Amino acid sequence: MKQIITIFLTMLVLISPAFAQESDIDAVINKMLTASGGEEKLLQLNNYKQTWNVEFMNSDKSGYDKRTIILPEYLKTEIIYPDKREVRIVDKETGTKIFGNKTLQAKGPMLDAMRLQLMRLYHPLELKNRAKNLTMTQNNKQYILALKNGAIAVEYIVSKKTYLIEKVIGRLQMGPQQMEFLTRYEDYKSKNGVLIPHKEVKFVGSMNTAIMTLKKIEFTK
What we know:
This protein is an alpha+beta fold. The chain has helices at about 1-35, 40, 110-120, 125-130, and strands at about 45-55, 60-70, 75-80, 85-90, 95-100, 100-105, 135-140, 140-150, 150-160, 165-175, 175-190, 195-205, 205-220. The protein has a single domain, classed as Lipoprotein localisation LolA/LolB/LppX (outer membrane lipoprotein receptor (LolB), chain A, Clam). A hairpin with a 5-residue loop joins strand 1 and strand 2.
């Protein structure tokens, strides 16, 4: 009998931290949902289109970024440079890039990078749907929700003060090298009752590559 009790207590000690973290993650996500406008309003972010003004930091040129998002599996990004145009489409596990009249099927790290860009757009309601796959750590000012999908790892950095996503860090493996992509979200404003960042500051590694300002958003069905 004593042996059975000992085994039971040991199992409780091993299992309790996992349940505690799951409970903590749920609590944080629920506060994120409330802060962003609530579940009903956030459903609008499952289907929408955006147009961004883009300032390219490696030159004195600017352009546009047009997105069509259908979560959780579709993202079309059209980047309009002063002298060229590029289209990237990720649909489930398929990726396509279009340069002028040339179409390229994305594979390997190229496809992973496109899927990473889709994952970084997951809003709190989408994270709630994936809560069982999330892990969480924290520092004095932020919660860090981590999500992995194959070779892709994404961290959603959440403010403890506002419960809004302050930045997203995406990492992917390219051979022996790991690439890191960071997007910082600023200037949250309400649109149809949901808080949306109107500024994105983008980095590859430590290099600031672009500053983007939201010009237009359209919620679609």
